[in-house]
Design goal:
The protein has 329 residues and is mostly beta strands. The protein is 5% helix and 38% strand.
């Protein structure tokens, strides 16, 4: 009997090792609804929608303009940038439509805080009042409950730091940095207490978005221009800065020359909750259309999720985020 117990224990250890996740990873989530912004010509601004990944049950959530939508990790809430009344974030219950504004404890610090931490306790914020006081530029975080507990994470006097995503374990952020002239510097990762700053792309990388962490915790996806004469394509880099490579999306030529009237940009990529797919939007230069698409993580299986109404050039459907909220239906 003792021998059987020991053998069972060793077998359990072997299985645990077999299914162990990388450091900073989380168990795969269930692929739920996709959240996105749609340009509303009547308002001249973006309103937010949800849809199932197959494009069904498309629904506008609120009648007024909102930007930078993100799902909470558990799919129970949507967080957006604040309203013009000085709030830094708006937290929405997608099932009831109930709203809650979050105001920063320092009203002189103009913060947009749409990025929830994995545990939902904090919001990462971009600071926008550089002309008033350039020394305050950087990334901050606040409590999601009351806007208190202000923490300064980065400092970039006169420049701009834009948070992209929390790591799955909530200990780090990926963000994009631009210099005092608005020129992109590159992507960085940093601990949420401000330590451990590390640049993960070459200086001068022309990033189009600020990065999203894979659920497995080891890769960051983003869009970039290979040069200033071509449109955006989708790239992945390891969280330590190694392994940079392009995802070749099959069925569409991302990253064509600006001079080509039929060229396309692939933008705003993020991972599905299970880490097996990606969601992004495609801008078609010849039609001006911009719609949401999904694909497998290797670029195969391209699928068009949304079909935006007649577009305003460069607008349409954008800012997708794939959450765990149960599918509609």
């Amino acid at each position: 009997m003792r021998k059987l117990i020991v053998l069972g224990f060793l077998a359990g250890l072997a299985l645990a090792a077999l299914f162990a996740l990388p450091a900073g990873a989380k168990p795969p989530g269930v692929n739920g609804q996709i959240l996105f912004g749609r340009f509303d010509p009547a308002q001249g601004d973006t309103v937010i929608y949800t849809a199932n990944p197959d494009g069904s049950h498309e629904q506008q959530l609120l009648p007024f303009a909102l930007e930078c939508p993100h799902w909470s990790a558990d799919g129970s809430r949507i967080v957006t940038c604040g309203l013009p009344d000085g709030s830094s974030a708006l937290i929405i219950n997608p099932d009831t439509g109930n709203l809650r504004e979050v105001f920063p404890s320092d009203p002189t610090l103009f913060l947009a805080c749409p990025l929830p931490s994995p545990d939902g306790q904090r919001l990462a914020c971009e600071q926008f009042d550089q002309p008033a006081d350039p020394s305050r530029a950087g990334i901050y975080s606040i409590r999601s409950t009351d806007g208190g507990g202000l923490i300064r994470i980065t400092s970039n006097p006169g420049g701009s730091d834009s948070p992209g995503d929390y790591s799955p374990n909530g200990k780090r952020l990926v963000f994009g940095r631009s210099d005092q002239n608005g020129e992109p510097v590159g992507l960085f990762v940093v601990n949420v207490n401000g330590t451990g700053l590390k640049q993960i792309t070459q200086t001068g990388t022309l990033f189009s978005t600020t990065g999203a962490w894979s659920p497995q915790g080891n890769e960051i996806i983003f869009s970039r221009h290979v040069s200033d004469s071509v449109r955006s394509s989708i790239w992945v880099v390891h969280a330590d800065g190694s392994g940079l490579h392009e995802i070749q999306v099959q069925g569409v030529a991302c990253g064509g020359a600006f001079s080509d009237p039929t060229s396309k940009s692939c933008l705003e990529p993020r991972w599905s909750p299970d880490g097996k797919k990606i969601v992004f939007d495609i801008f078609n230069a010849d039609t001006g259309q911009r719609n949401i698409y999904t694909a497998h993580a290797d670029g195969s299986g391209l699928f068009q999720v949304t079909h935006a109404p007649s577009p305003v050039l460069g607008e349409g459907d954008q800012f997708p985020d794939w959450g765990t909220h149960p599918l509609a239906g």
